[in-house]
Specification:
Length: about 220
Protein backbone atom coordinates (compact mmCIF):
# COMPACT_ATOMS: atom_id res chain seq x y z
CA UNK A 1 0.00 0.00 0.00
CA UNK A 2 1.26 3.45 -0.92
CA UNK A 3 1.91 5.50 2.21
CA UNK A 4 1.03 9.16 2.19
CA UNK A 5 3.78 11.52 3.15
CA UNK A 6 3.23 13.61 6.23
CA UNK A 7 2.41 16.74 4.22
CA UNK A 8 0.51 15.13 1.36
CA UNK A 9 -3.30 15.42 1.46
CA UNK A 10 -5.37 12.28 1.26
CA UNK A 11 -7.02 11.49 -2.11
CA UNK A 12 -10.39 12.46 -0.65
CA UNK A 13 -9.10 15.83 0.55
CA UNK A 14 -7.35 16.45 -2.77
CA UNK A 15 -10.53 15.61 -4.69
CA UNK A 16 -12.57 17.96 -2.50
CA UNK A 17 -10.06 20.75 -3.07
CA UNK A 18 -10.18 20.26 -6.85
CA UNK A 19 -13.98 20.39 -6.73
CA UNK A 20 -13.98 23.65 -4.79
CA UNK A 21 -11.37 25.15 -7.11
CA UNK A 22 -13.55 24.26 -10.12
CA UNK A 23 -16.51 25.95 -8.43
CA UNK A 24 -14.41 29.04 -7.74
CA UNK A 25 -13.28 29.27 -11.36
CA UNK A 26 -16.84 28.75 -12.61
CA UNK A 27 -18.03 31.67 -10.48
CA UNK A 28 -15.05 33.78 -11.55
CA UNK A 29 -15.93 33.16 -15.20
CA UNK A 30 -19.55 34.13 -14.56
CA UNK A 31 -18.48 37.41 -12.98
CA UNK A 32 -16.05 37.99 -15.84
CA UNK A 33 -18.79 37.44 -18.40
CA UNK A 34 -21.26 39.68 -16.62
CA UNK A 35 -19.06 42.55 -15.45
CA UNK A 36 -15.63 42.33 -17.08
CA UNK A 37 -12.12 41.50 -15.82
CA UNK A 38 -11.92 44.24 -13.18
CA UNK A 39 -14.93 42.78 -11.38
CA UNK A 40 -13.18 39.46 -10.73
CA UNK A 41 -11.81 39.83 -7.21
CA UNK A 42 -11.47 37.52 -4.25
CA UNK A 43 -14.24 39.43 -2.49
CA UNK A 44 -16.69 39.20 -5.42
CA UNK A 45 -16.04 35.49 -5.94
CA UNK A 46 -16.28 34.73 -2.22
CA UNK A 47 -19.56 36.64 -2.03
CA UNK A 48 -21.11 34.59 -4.83
CA UNK A 49 -19.99 31.37 -3.18
CA UNK A 50 -21.20 32.37 0.25
CA UNK A 51 -17.66 32.14 1.59
CA UNK A 52 -15.53 34.64 3.44
CA UNK A 53 -12.61 36.21 1.66
CA UNK A 54 -10.33 34.64 4.24
CA UNK A 55 -11.69 31.16 3.37
CA UNK A 56 -10.89 31.78 -0.28
CA UNK A 57 -7.24 32.39 0.62
CA UNK A 58 -7.02 28.68 1.38
CA UNK A 59 -7.40 28.03 -2.35
CA UNK A 60 -5.91 31.16 -3.93
CA UNK A 61 -3.45 33.22 -1.95
CA UNK A 62 -4.10 36.43 -3.89
CA UNK A 63 -6.14 37.98 -6.67
CA UNK A 64 -3.13 37.43 -8.94
CA UNK A 65 -3.12 33.71 -8.16
CA UNK A 66 -6.83 33.52 -8.93
CA UNK A 67 -6.26 35.40 -12.18
CA UNK A 68 -3.50 33.01 -13.25
CA UNK A 69 -5.74 30.01 -12.62
CA UNK A 70 -8.60 31.69 -14.47
CA UNK A 71 -6.43 32.44 -17.51
CA UNK A 72 -5.15 28.85 -17.62
CA UNK A 73 -8.71 27.54 -17.43
CA UNK A 74 -9.95 29.89 -20.14
CA UNK A 75 -7.09 28.93 -22.44
CA UNK A 76 -7.88 25.27 -21.92
CA UNK A 77 -11.49 25.88 -22.95
CA UNK A 78 -10.28 27.73 -26.05
CA UNK A 79 -8.04 24.86 -27.15
CA UNK A 80 -10.83 22.35 -26.53
CA UNK A 81 -13.19 24.39 -28.73
CA UNK A 82 -10.63 24.68 -31.52
CA UNK A 83 -9.76 20.98 -31.44
CA UNK A 84 -13.44 20.05 -31.54
CA UNK A 85 -14.07 22.30 -34.57
CA UNK A 86 -11.04 20.98 -36.45
CA UNK A 87 -12.07 17.38 -35.71
CA UNK A 88 -15.48 17.99 -37.30
CA UNK A 89 -13.95 19.45 -40.48
CA UNK A 90 -13.68 16.60 -42.99
CA UNK A 91 -11.60 18.49 -45.54
CA UNK A 92 -7.90 18.79 -44.70
CA UNK A 93 -7.73 21.80 -47.02
CA UNK A 94 -10.10 23.77 -44.80
CA UNK A 95 -8.70 23.09 -41.33
CA UNK A 96 -7.00 26.47 -40.92
CA UNK A 97 -10.06 28.38 -42.10
CA UNK A 98 -12.04 26.30 -39.65
CA UNK A 99 -9.56 27.17 -36.91
CA UNK A 100 -9.99 30.89 -37.57
CA UNK A 101 -13.77 30.70 -37.64
CA UNK A 102 -13.83 28.60 -34.46
CA UNK A 103 -11.58 31.08 -32.65
CA UNK A 104 -13.93 33.91 -33.63
CA UNK A 105 -17.03 31.94 -32.65
CA UNK A 106 -15.52 31.03 -29.28
CA UNK A 107 -14.78 34.62 -28.28
CA UNK A 108 -17.22 36.83 -30.19
CA UNK A 109 -19.68 36.81 -27.30
CA UNK A 110 -16.99 36.46 -24.61
CA UNK A 111 -14.78 39.49 -25.16
CA UNK A 112 -14.13 39.72 -21.43
CA UNK A 113 -12.50 36.29 -21.52
CA UNK A 114 -10.47 37.26 -24.58
CA UNK A 115 -9.24 40.45 -22.94
CA UNK A 116 -8.37 38.61 -19.74
CA UNK A 117 -6.16 36.15 -21.60
CA UNK A 118 -4.60 38.23 -24.33
CA UNK A 119 -4.77 41.81 -23.09
CA UNK A 120 -4.88 42.01 -19.29
CA UNK A 121 -1.93 39.69 -18.67
CA UNK A 122 0.52 41.61 -20.85
CA UNK A 123 -0.48 44.99 -19.42
CA UNK A 124 1.23 44.12 -16.17
CA UNK A 125 4.35 42.38 -17.52
CA UNK A 126 6.58 41.57 -15.85
CA UNK A 127 4.70 40.92 -12.63
CA UNK A 128 3.21 38.26 -10.44
CA UNK A 129 -0.05 38.68 -12.36
CA UNK A 130 1.44 36.80 -15.29
CA UNK A 131 1.27 33.07 -15.76
CA UNK A 132 4.06 31.41 -13.84
CA UNK A 133 6.59 29.11 -15.46
CA UNK A 134 5.08 25.94 -14.00
CA UNK A 135 1.58 26.78 -15.26
CA UNK A 136 2.95 27.54 -18.71
CA UNK A 137 5.11 24.42 -18.85
CA UNK A 138 2.65 21.93 -17.37
CA UNK A 139 -0.79 23.25 -18.37
CA UNK A 140 -0.62 25.69 -21.30
CA UNK A 141 2.22 24.53 -23.54
CA UNK A 142 1.10 20.87 -23.74
CA UNK A 143 -2.37 21.90 -24.87
CA UNK A 144 -1.16 24.38 -27.50
CA UNK A 145 1.33 21.79 -28.77
CA UNK A 146 -1.54 19.33 -29.02
CA UNK A 147 -3.46 21.80 -31.20
CA UNK A 148 -0.56 22.36 -33.58
CA UNK A 149 0.25 18.64 -33.62
CA UNK A 150 -3.28 17.95 -34.84
CA UNK A 151 -3.09 20.68 -37.48
CA UNK A 152 0.29 19.42 -38.69
CA UNK A 153 -1.04 15.86 -38.97
CA UNK A 154 -4.04 17.05 -40.98
CA UNK A 155 -2.04 19.16 -43.44
CA UNK A 156 1.31 17.37 -43.89
CA UNK A 157 1.63 14.90 -46.74
CA UNK A 158 2.82 11.39 -46.05
CA UNK A 159 6.60 11.39 -45.98
CA UNK A 160 6.85 15.16 -45.49
CA UNK A 161 10.31 16.27 -44.44
CA UNK A 162 11.11 17.89 -41.13
CA UNK A 163 11.53 21.25 -42.90
CA UNK A 164 8.14 20.90 -44.59
CA UNK A 165 6.47 20.02 -41.30
CA UNK A 166 8.11 23.02 -39.68
CA UNK A 167 6.71 25.32 -42.38
CA UNK A 168 3.26 23.80 -41.86
CA UNK A 169 3.41 24.46 -38.12
CA UNK A 170 4.50 28.02 -38.82
CA UNK A 171 1.55 28.45 -41.17
CA UNK A 172 -0.83 27.02 -38.57
CA UNK A 173 0.61 29.29 -35.88
CA UNK A 174 0.22 32.29 -38.20
CA UNK A 175 -3.43 31.38 -38.79
CA UNK A 176 -4.02 31.25 -35.05
CA UNK A 177 -2.30 34.58 -34.42
CA UNK A 178 -4.23 36.13 -37.32
CA UNK A 179 -7.49 35.05 -35.71
CA UNK A 180 -6.22 36.55 -32.46
CA UNK A 181 -5.42 39.82 -34.27
CA UNK A 182 -8.88 40.00 -35.82
CA UNK A 183 -10.51 39.45 -32.44
CA UNK A 184 -8.26 42.11 -30.90
CA UNK A 185 -9.45 44.63 -33.49
CA UNK A 186 -13.07 43.68 -32.85
CA UNK A 187 -12.42 44.11 -29.14
CA UNK A 188 -11.00 47.58 -29.67
CA UNK A 189 -13.98 48.51 -31.84
CA UNK A 190 -16.35 47.27 -29.13
CA UNK A 191 -14.52 49.12 -26.34
CA UNK A 192 -14.44 52.42 -28.22
CA UNK A 193 -17.87 52.06 -29.86
CA UNK A 194 -16.12 52.72 -33.17
CA UNK A 195 -16.99 49.93 -35.65
CA UNK A 196 -14.25 48.84 -38.04
CA UNK A 197 -14.68 49.85 -41.68
CA UNK A 198 -15.08 46.40 -43.19
CA UNK A 199 -17.94 44.05 -42.28
CA UNK A 200 -16.94 41.47 -39.69
CA UNK A 201 -18.24 38.55 -41.77
CA UNK A 202 -16.24 39.70 -44.79
CA UNK A 203 -13.03 39.94 -42.78
CA UNK A 204 -13.58 36.53 -41.27
CA UNK A 205 -14.35 34.96 -44.64
CA UNK A 206 -11.37 36.62 -46.31
CA UNK A 207 -8.94 35.59 -43.59
CA UNK A 208 -10.19 32.01 -43.66
CA UNK A 209 -9.94 31.88 -47.46
CA UNK A 210 -6.33 33.13 -47.43
CA UNK A 211 -5.20 30.27 -45.19
CA UNK A 212 -7.35 27.64 -46.90
CA UNK A 213 -5.72 28.63 -50.20
CA UNK A 214 -2.28 28.40 -48.59
CA UNK A 215 -3.07 24.85 -47.41
CA UNK A 216 -4.39 23.92 -50.87
CA UNK A 217 -1.01 24.89 -52.35
CA UNK A 218 0.69 22.53 -49.93
CA UNK A 219 -1.70 19.64 -50.56
Amino acid sequence: MLKLTENAPSPRVAQKREQVEREILTIAQSILSENGPKAVTLASVAGRLGMTKQSLYHYYSSRQALNRALVANLLEKEIEALLAAVAKQKSDKKVLGTLIKAFHAHYVDKLGAFRTIYCSTQMYAPSKSNLDEITLREEIHPRTRQLFDVLEQRIAKAGASRAERKRIRQLAFTAWTSALGLMAMLGVADATDDPITHPEKVLLRTLSMVFDNAVSEIL
